[in-house]
Amino acid sequence: MRLFSEWPELIDAAGARLLDGLGWQAPTTGYPTGAQWIEKYLAPLAAALGDRVRFGARVTGVSRLGRDRLVDAGRGDQPFTVHVSPAQGEEYRLQARAVIDASGTWSTPNPAGADGLPAIGEAASADLLSYRIPDFRDRAGFAGKHTVVIGSGHSAVTAVLALARMARRDPSTTVTWALRRAAVGNTFGGGDADELPARGALGIKAKEHVDAGLVSLVTGFRVERVTRDGERPVLVAEDGRTLMADRVVVLTGFRPDLSFLSELRLELDPTLQAPVRIAAEVDPNVHSCGSVAATGAADLAQPEPDFYLVGAKSYGRAPTFLALTGYEQVRSVAAEMAGDREAARRVELVLPDTGVCGGAGLFDASGASLGGACCAPPVLQIGRASAPG
Questions:
Q1: How crowded is the C-beta side of 13, counted as CA atoms within 13 Å?
Q2: Is the Cα dihedral 194, 196, 197, 203 positive or negative?
Q3: Among 38, 90, 138, 156, which one has the highest count of C-beta atoms within 10 angstroms of its own C-beta?
Q4: Which helix (H) or strand (E) holds 336?
Q5: CB within 8 A of 168, min separation 6: which ones?
Q6: Would you list the domain boundaries of the chain?
Q7: What are the distances in angstroms from CA 381 to CA 37, 216, 352, 373, 385?
Q8: pLDDT band, very low/low/confident/very high, at 320 (cuts 50, 70, 90)
Q9: Residue 274 DSSP label
């Protein structure tokens, strides 16, 4: 998948400084794919870090040495214990002065069920559902078939665009785009007002395909049940409507995995599951303008001293995280851990506007909104942020 940000917006300054000393040449123009981002930046960076990077390792728990969640006495003086399950061999334990959780949300996609839990029968039909943007180079899996895409974010739009291009070439290929909200609202994004032009173009193209009849848009479809008709999944909505498909692509967002942090003391927003001091800034129920302030160590710190949530996980269930946001977060946290309080407090990034205002828009037919107006007057943008499309 191609990113909607250009190369200069995808490279962290500290990473570039490390690689520059090794003769690395920074890409300067164009919109890379995810694979190119890995090949030309992330993989060289990992190689430069050497054995500091451990691949194939899954953290299964984080706690304090000799202290469970209940114990106050001497808690902050004890090192963290990080339990690691390697790809091969036995589980082991590391001790650490500080822990930065940048584990993201990619491993925990949201279900198709409209109430945030798997729909009845969803688990039993999981082999017929996809929770990632499919590899559409596998045309045989989609050409001449009916695919239903569930979701309204950039991932859903990206999948819809790819399928619409197939439908244009082959009229026997059909696409249905199912939205939970009763009205289209700002599904198509900020268009020309988006300060990341490639991101704005996604929505513009999607609307063109819907208007041209290449994509059937269904609103107010909230999945309650998934059944099977042989090898074809059938989606049943709360209001009784049904959609039968050959393929179903569920792109309803992601959520943080907090299971391995159960022995730590966290202060998270009850809605977003994000650190409470940044939740109001990123809550899509409140606004979606992109006028989010860069977040630093003070915003990300938890009641557990020297433990920080950063990256996409710091946004909880909010879908608006951008790569440069994470770079700025880690810069601030690293400065705080090094004792440079002034650098930790300094803000070195202003994020680009999405061009969308008014929260998440209307959700039900009665006109109830997920949020209100949010936008402030535009400010000079001194940095650009980026994320996969």
A1: 13
A2: negative
A3: 156
A4: helix 323-337
A5: 214
A6: 1-53, 57-97, 126-250, 256-389
A7: 24, 37, 6, 21, 10
A8: confident
A9: S
* Domain 126-250 homologous superfamily, CATH: FAD/NAD(P)-binding domain (3.50.50.60)
Q: Return the half-sphere exposure (C-beta side, CA atoms, 13 A cut-off) of residue 300.
A: 33
What dihedral angle (degrees, nearest 10) is formed by the CA atoms of 35, 40, 45, 50?
80
d(CA 42, CA 76): 34
For the chain, give the number of residues.
Answer: 389
* Alpha-carbon span 247 to 234, nearest angstrom: 10
Burial class (CB in 10 A: 0-12, 13-18, 19+), 1: middle
Q: What is the per-residue pLDDT across 158-212, written as a single tens digit (0 to 9) for each?
A: 899 889 999 999 999 999 999 998 766 555 555 455 555 556 666 677 788 788 8
- Compute φ and ψ for 193, nearest 5 degrees: -80, -10
Query: Hey, what are 40's tokens?
Result: 């030309």
Residues of the chain above pLDDT 90, percent: 66
Tell me which H or E stretch contains 117. none
Residue tagged 């839990």 (tokens): 117
Average pLDDT of the chain to the nearest whole number = 85
> Which residues, other chains included, contact 47 with Cβ-Cβ below 8 Å and sequence gap of 6+?
none
Q: In this structure, which amino acid lies at residue 12?
A: D
Q: What's the pTM value of the predicted model, to 2 decimals?
A: 0.83
